[in-house]
Amino acid sequence: MPQDCAAELLEVVPMVMRAMRAEVRGHRAPELSMPQFRALAFIGRNEGAMLSDVANFLGQSLPAASKLVEGLVVAQFAIRRQDPTDRRKISLKLSPSGEAKHQAILSHARAFLSHKVEHLGEPQRSEILSAMRSLRSIFQPCQPMEVART
To answer: Can you state the angle between helices 2-27 and 96-117, rounded to 10 degrees?
Structure first.
């Protein structure tokens, strides 16, 4: 039933995200605050994102997000680019060191999740993979930029 599926998603997805946040929080680079880490990951997943996208993702005001991103720029993890046609628009991308940091974090997260599911049998892992692919097909087309917190 769709309602049972929705109820299970509402229970399980937050548990997975809490576990991931706790794991990442324990292994993030000490030079990054947790909001900076989240911004770095968002920019890594959404190259060319605008400052307003980062602010919306973090649930911050534009000035607060600008200050946070400035910290990433100063640390040489992110690069700001002004739109050539509208100077008010600022797009963001990771610098090479920011990309390396993002990839290291992703690698650690994948290892953490792999460890969590390694005790499951192949049929169960295949079911999870199939379910995740179905969820991707449902949610990906309607969201060009992330809006959910990670």
So the answer is: 120
